[in-house]
Amino acid sequence: MNRFTWLMIRLLLVMVPLVFIINGLTKHDWREAFFFAVAVAVGLTPEMLPTIVSVSLSRGAMAMSRKKVIVKHLDAMQNFGAMDVLCTDKTGTLTMDEVLLERHCDVAGRESERVLVHAWLISHFQTGLRNVLDDAILAHRGQHPALTPDVWSKVDEIPFDFSRRVMSVVVQGQEGPRRLIAKGAAEEVLKRCTHFERDGVVLPIEAMHLAEVREHYDALSAEGFRVLAVAGRDVDVKKEYSQADEDGLVLLGYVGFLDPPKESAKPAIAALQQAGVAVKILTGDNPLVSRTVCGKVGLETGDVILGGDIDAMSDESLGEALSRSALCARLAPLQKDRIIRVLKGQGHTVGFLGDGINDAPALRAADVGVSVEQGVDIAKESADIILLEKSLLVLHEGVLEGRRTFSNILKYVRMGASSNFGNMLSVLGRARCSPSSPWPPSRSSPTTCCTIFRRSRSPVTTSMPSSWRSRGRGRLRRSRVSSCSSARSVRSSTTRPSP
Questions:
Q1: Which residues have a Cβ under 8 Å from the Cβ of 126 and sit 6 or more positions away?
Q2: Which 3-state string (H, E, C) describes the chain?
Q3: CB–CB of 466/406 below 8 Å?
């Protein structure tokens, strides 16, 4: 829109002084020349544009609400239609968001009740915001009698944060020492482990054992499981515990969660790509799991970008990597924000779909932030658009409706600006040749003060993203021909005598 505004300003800076000087020199009445030049400036301006934009956006918002898309900020509809890159999380968008705990095994891959008990104690005693993984763990209480808090009491808690991706609780049993239990991203937990437990024996993690420890974790991830590592150790009695107490842990095993892909994800991604919207997955999950899910829904990932590598990249190198990749894994919230800004710097109109606390920075950084009704409050507050259903098919319908709305606005801009420019150019020529003013300034108000508010249904207007570009105004001449022919038909119909 700024480019179109500057185009109109440049036209005014050329036309208005020219009309003023020509009229002043030929008519020798500089006062009349001044007012006529001002009238020309008013005539060049598409003065109905604010009304057209407001009405079109309002109608578009009403149409989108019928398709389960709620528009919080009307101006976001233009970016919604112009969006050519959609960044989204994997969980709940590509997957069903119905997480089930399917595996709880030791480092050798054998089912372990001890691992499940430790994971359950963390989920039960934590006071932070529980996620779907915690709910899946807690749902196993009825199936395992050993999962009871009666014999345990909470002493302290080291809360989760997105930089560590680990959380811990300190518990005290009826007998024995206090115990610190930790669970989190397997890579981060392994960094804090110096030993592992196998068959009840605690062994040191040496270089030769590291590949063996990771073997079953990688196997679970390759099968599409979301994997968390569980570790613990005995700790001394003291008043408070800190992150430093998480060092020297003993790896107990893994818990694996299954979140199957949505049936609608594959056709939705295909529809978005056909509509000119590239889909990129920004997730904090394991890259093996994410790539497996992307493969099941038909999304070609290319090279996978890891969060640990992004910090070492410049914006230029990150932009080049993003052009070859559709999957970024193990991301922190600020890394998502940086990816959005880099894509915007490349000239893309970027949308971001997220519903969690960690998505708030990226939602604000995107050209259009999209959240869902079931999202957390801060995500919905940061978003421009709310989906009543977390589905890419609903998002696709909203994108098409946004393009129809933008197309209606563009119709008036092309018709009004081209018609006004043609009219004023004719006035300029007449003013040069006529001994008197072509018409008084009071009659120079534009005649194109209305437009047809019929909803555009042409597939040409919605098949690809469109945005405000100065070169798009190069088609004004064609629009002017159609608008002038329409004006002539209107005049002929209004002057023809009725039978």
A1: 134, 157, 159, 160, 167, 169
A2: CHHHHHHHHHHHHHHHHHHHHHHHHHHCCHHHHHHHHHHHHHHHCCCCHHHHHHHHHHHHHHHHHCCCEEECCCCHHHHHHHCCEEEECCCCCCECCCCEEEEEEECCCCECHHHHHHHHHHHHHCCCCCCHHHHHHHCCHHHCCCCCHHHEEEEEEECCCCCCCEEEEEEEECCCCEEEEEEEEHHHHHHCEEEEEECCEEEECCHHHHHHHHHHHHHHHHCCCEEEEEEEEEECCCCCCCHHHHCCEEEEEEEEEECCECCCHHHHHHHHHHCCCEEEEECCCCHHHHHHHHHHCCCCCECEEEHHHHCCCCHHHHHHHHHHECEEECCCHHHHHHHHHHHHHCCCCEEEECCCHHHHHHHHHCCEEEEECCCCHHHHHHCCEEECCCCHHHHHHHHHHHHHHHHHHHHHHHHHHHHHHHHHHHHHHHHHHCCCCCCCHHHCCCCCCCCCCCCCCCHHHHCCCCCCCHHHHHHHHHHHHHHHHHHHHHHHHHHCCCC
A3: yes
Give the tokens for residue 58: 């309002």
State yes or no: is 89 an active-site residue: yes
Catalytic-role residue among 29, 75, 84, 89: 89
Q: Taking 70 as the threshold, does the pLDDT of residue 269 lie above it?
A: yes
Stated length of the chain = 499
The C-alpha atoms of residue 384 and residue 397 are separated, in whole angstroms, by 16
Whole-prediction pTM: 0.72
What does DSSP say about strands 69-71 and 385-387: parallel, antiparallel, or unpaired? Answer: antiparallel
Which one, of 298, 345, 297, 293, lies nearest residue 322 by Cα? 345
In angstroms, the CA 488 to CA 356 distance is 56
Strand 152-158 and strand 69-71: the pairing is unpaired
Place of tokens 């099968």: 223
Share of the chain above pLDDT 90, in %: 28
Count other C-beta atoms under 10 Å from residue 354's C-beta.
29
pLDDT-derived band at 376, boundaries 50, 70, 90: confident
Cβ atoms of residues 179 and 171 within 8 Å: yes
* Model confidence pLDDT, tens digit, residues 57-116: 888 888 888 888 899 988 888 888 889 999 998 887 888 878 889 889 988 888 888 899
How far from the centroid of its chain's Cα atoms is residue 197's Cα?
42
Q: CA-based angle 349:94:367, to the nearest 5?
A: 15
Contact partners, residue 321, CB within 8 Å, separation at least 6: 303, 305, 313
Residue 350: predicted pLDDT: 94
Judged against a pLDDT cut of 60, whether residue 149 lies above it is answered with yes
Mean pLDDT for 299-318 is 91
Q: Once rounded to an integer, what is the mean pLDDT over residues 227-232?
A: 94
